[in-house]
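User: Before I run my own analysis I want an independent prediction to cross-check against. Here's the chain; please return only the structure tokens and, at the end, one sentence I can use as a sanity check.
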Amino acid sequence: MQYKGIIFDFNGTLFFDSKKHYDAWKKYSKQLRGKEFSDDEMRKYMFGRTNEDIIAYAIGRKPEPELCEKLAKEKESLYRQMCLEDPENFHFAPHAENLLDYLCEKNIPHTIATMSEKDNVDFYIKEMNLANWFDVEKIVYSDGTIPGKPAPDIYIKAAQKLNLDPKDCIVVEDALSGIEAAHKAKIGCIIAIASLESTDLYTDIPYVHQVITDYNEFDLTLFS
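Assistant: Structure tokens:
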């Protein structure tokens, strides 16, 4: 099967920042409920979810909009500061730029579908120069209208932004919820990237085509 386009999740996929989000949410979960999220909770209920989903899980009820916005903004501000204070690790995933250069050179449609909110997306566009590789108007992010993963909506919308059928797209994901979202969206090919977790986490998922740890391992023949 030859695919016509590719959609990247961002956090933990193009940017290996899962540990920073992990640390920030660990801190906030203790503030919100008196104890930190467990590793299993982080894996199941944090990665790939909206801030509202995460806060609701932590406090056991849907948060009032004002509370949700306050806590989310505080957490994300802390996260962005952590990124800026760690320039050694504030960069694209290994060899991701090589793949992005290839996609641009070959005019292969590509975009980002992230559950990050606008403040963070604007931060990435500015600090990581995303416009060098992406049409930033086609980036899909959490704008308050898209259900969190594992709902398929974000990947359906991203495929629409590329004017492609989901079955003609590749998705690269690190989160189990994101992989499930791509599967539910009927994405043609799902590639898991093990940025925080062991590759073993993904190997038994029947609809994962390939598990990589570095973009040099990406199978370019999928576009041939």
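Sanity check: Strands lie at 5-8, 110-117, 140-142, 169-173, 189-193, 210-212.
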